[in-house]
Description:
Its cofactor is NAD(+). Pathway: Amino-acid degradation; L-histidine degradation into L-glutamate; N-formimidoyl-L-glutamate from L-histidine: step 2/3. Catalyzes the conversion of urocanate to 4-imidazolone-5-propionate. NAD(+) binds at residues 125-126, 203, 268, 395, 586. The chain is an alpha/beta fold. 42% of the residues lie in helices and 14% in strands. It has 21 helices and 19 strands. Strands 3, 4, 5, 14, 15, 16, 17, 18 and 19 form a 9-stranded mixed beta sheet that branches. Helix 10 links the parallel strand 8 and strand 9 (307-312).
Amino acid sequence: MTFQEQIKQGIPNELPQPKEYDYYINHAPKRKDILSDEEKKLALKNALRYFDPKFHTELIPEFKQELEQYGRIYMYRFRPDYEMYARPIDEYPGNSLQAKAIMVMIQNNLSYAVAQHPHELITYGGNGAVFQNWAQYLLTMKYLSEMTDEQTLVMYSGHPLGLFPSHKDAPRVVVTNGMVIPNYSKPDDWEKFNALGVSQYGQMTAGSYMYIGPQGIVHGTTITVLNAFRKIKKDPKGGLFVTSGLGGMSGAQPKAGNIAGCVTVCAEVNPKIAKIRYEQKWVDEIHTNLDKLVERVREAQSAKETVSLAYLGNVVEVWEKFADENLKIDIGSDQTSLHNPWAGGYYPVGQSFEESNKMMAHQPQLFKEKVQESLRRQVKAIGRHTEKGTYFFDYGNAFLLEASRAGADVLAAHPTIGKEFKYPSYVQDIMGPMCFDYGFGPFRWVCTSDKSEDLAKTDELATKVLHEIMDNSPEEIHQQVADNIQWIKGAQENNLVVGSQARILYADAEGRIKIAKAFNEAIRNGEIGPVVLGRDHHDVSGTDSPYRETSNIYDGSRFTADMAIHNVIGDSFRGATWVSIHNGGGVGWGEVINGGFGMLLDGTDDADRRLKSMLFWDVNNGIARRNWARNEGAIFAIKRAMETEPKLKVTLPNMVDENLL
């Protein structure tokens, strides 16, 4: 069968041959055995409902074995035979260009070059799933190939609920992931619901089909690193940045360090991931010996070299060794997946990667104790450095939250609302006041032609727009625009593309709308093919997360999730091609509600109309909320937005004299 025929077939009418387990692929760790015997029967019944009863006798023992061996039913047998990567949009079957664009994005999320655990349909973060199993993937792609522009596909935590009658301005796909009742959002609840096959952890851009590889966070990490050095008033040249994690999102760190111009040391326990990042040229060197690593760092600091060094081992050892050697760390953080601490997100010091994987599956309580012991030890070592002037910040991965739960010394001596920890979140110190409050966030686009020349053209158009904005922008946002111009000019030379021809930059509503309009005009003129717009959920408006995106909200509302819900509802009727809303993200299940969108630009007047309406709302609803929280930058930004759009009327806060209180 051709690729198009396989897509249109969906779940095959005859059982394909079982697939051999590929040990060369990076696989998800075994999940804990959490279901009772009755629940295991239910999990099997839930999995078998995708298939004709005539196949059940053969599939039951196979699915039972998967559940016992991996803790999940992935349906490996139904993994497609074709290569998994994003093809040019015109290679997909279908009746709707918008639906074809979504197929491009789904396959990009599952591409071997992009996905962390491709055979388990997990894109990043250890549990960020596009689908729960391969039947869901096959059925979804079939529905998309049949869809018209007057239908909407409803996605229920990876399961395609079905195609419903709709209209051309409605989203083609509506995605929800993990939207469980709040009382059932503990980590073990996710383990149970996911094992039953009824809910999934979509992370942020995994389950919303908008992940573009680590590039998606390189820009934000670059801005963070640059501004962290500005904060301590030091030039990045010769400065040392120490962190951990090379998988998924965290893999962006060494590349961002190189763009910023510092020395980066990033620890990683998984040799496969370290090898992938080295082969992708996202890290310059891999070291396995701490003494030699210290030597190499001193040499790089002395020469003011720009270099990224991966340490194949535990980051706790790095913090301790550098303290013992009196090696000055300028800025430090951690980007292990501590939102998922008990299932592969964080590996404890003192045992091998393989030992940890076995322990988390077979001795989960002991593994939890080891993780918490390791966190206490890591925080103690970090403290030895911060006492000497190291600027340490939480990188939004729930490091401080989980360290506090482990009893580590991270709580502030005199806590205030929103400032419970002795170390700041990077959003509190950097991204919130400098970017989000002013409306700047991670705008991204994908060239669906998969042509590098199309991406180069979009870079050129975006650069031109940014220069025009810079010439007319107020002083308050000059630095943000200047950083973006520097970023986009160097984007191609830094080899940032992994998977689809995609780009990201931090832009406000004005920048996003003007760049999108320039793209749509170029598509209309035949200069480039169709373009998908999107963003990371980690943005101005899409996410309510008290320990990350909204951690610089100090009016007591950071635990509310109204903004994320407003955002996705508003995007839905303002022209988004698809929308998504998730429970869980980079900080953990039950710790965040986050929403995203995708929008196809096809050169039409309809696309022009939609992009203006939707992109303006997608940014300004968040600025309005941040303004109401009395954030100075957001008050400035929303007043400016009201001056440019007479129909916008936002409630402004009145300030209270502190002396009266």
